[in-house]
Predict the structure.
Amino acid sequence: MDSTLEFLAFAAVNNLKAAGLTVATAESCTGGLIAAALTGVPGASSAFRYGWVTYCNEAKERELNVPAALIDEHTVVSEPVVAAMAESAMRKAGADCAVAVSGNAGPTAAEGEPPVGTVCIALARRGAARSHTETLYRPGMDRNAFRTMVAARALELIAGAAKG
């Protein structure tokens, strides 16, 4: 695993443990990379609750209760969709927070979808009025570099959320 991901996962898990918080993940384009980084940290079992890899739209709908109409209206790579993914993952896991990602790692984009290099990330926190969402656009990255960048940003958000 990438040393940056290891470092960020260590920080995230230790911050979660220090705050007595738990996390869940809902991943699409990263394919479980965030969960793998978190569970690679010794003692992660006290902070990591569940992880979902919902790569296709049907999985997002069935496993995370993301409405098909929301996907149709905004596309699967959108802030409303990742917010719904994160909020559902947090509820279903009984976690204190959850991160969700959906993006286009390439090599091509379907018609009507955001361009290759686009990712949306959400962080849901128990008690927050709404999820934090952001969209990043990093064109020209190869698929693995893009996935690593997305996982790194998600781990940063988790580490920050656990600190307050």
The first strand starts at residue 23 and ends at 27. Helices lie at 3-19, 33-39, 57-64, 68-74, 79-93, 143-163.
